[in-house]
């Protein structure tokens, strides 16, 4: 395995936008618990089930969800990036065959929104990306959104996706070495006041310059990780780190495993002199009573598209990612990194316990997004404020 690429010598640049008063990220981090929405930009959303619902992958639906979340005071939105063949993960619903590109989607949302953070998920090692492309595009979106845009960096963890781009899968740790160099180039291009010429192991540039300048030093940087290499990358670069439960989606098991997992991430950040904030993705199934919520959950599971669930599980198992290894097949029918099922009071209690386990925020998914999000705003959000998890 190739050794890690040497880090570029960077100009004495900018702190994280989290540390700059007045930046959108600095402002949302005043919240005791960040609230995010994981947009369903893919058909079938997050649950390969045939239970009737209105969840829709199309842009107009996701735009309405984003505006709905912004009106409720949510802090950020983003969606996943994926490349699948015809039929997606298969089954009756052809799970995730249709999907919007999340970079283009969040760019379009920039013109419709005014406060919420917009994070673009981009698989930076696929296709023709050069750091200069993304430095320019990102600075432009930062300008359009007044500092609300960010990059969720993904390196790609599935060989079949790499083959779509005519290349073999890159080894796990080398992908992070490449991501390290890519992000060093981005940071240099966003921070350099003069033309930049630099040669790295994977990318080179000569007399490159990016304008407009990002408004708060640089855009927001995010990554998802569960591996030592990913944690090292996060420690050096990321403002927000998306974590998953090493023990699967069942909430009690997750709560047992998360503290040590997050402590390791925080230790990696501390070694770099940085404070990392973590997000986790709960699937929220909430009804006025626990009985009603359990019935809703059980109906989703009973209506699972078994062929799609099996294919999705097989795809997850084939990845060299370490983030979802504890997740069981039947948990895939519902979705979410952890599953929070119960009354509004029980949902708030679960969030309090996730906070105590080290999670700084929750990136929510729902089965039937629009009505479930509306009920969350009506029944859960006031209780979150009463519990001290949200202010304002």
Automatic annotation (TrEMBL):
**What does the record give under GO molecular function?**
monooxygenase activity; oxidoreductase activity, acting on paired donors, with incorporation or reduction of molecular oxygen
Domain (Luciferase-like) spans 36-360
Q: Where is this region: Disordered?
A: 314-333
On the tree of life, the source organism's domain of life is Bacteria
> What keywords is this UniProt entry annotated with?
Flavoprotein, FMN, Monooxygenase, Oxidoreductase
What the entry lists under InterPro entries is as follows: Luciferase-like_dom (IPR011251), Luciferase-like_sf (IPR036661), SsuD_RutA_monooxygenase (IPR050172)
Q: What is this protein called?
A: Coenzyme F420-dependent N5,N10-methylene tetrahydromethanopterin reductase and related flavin-dependent oxidoreductases sulfonate monooxygenase
- Organism whose genome encodes this protein: Orrella dioscoreae
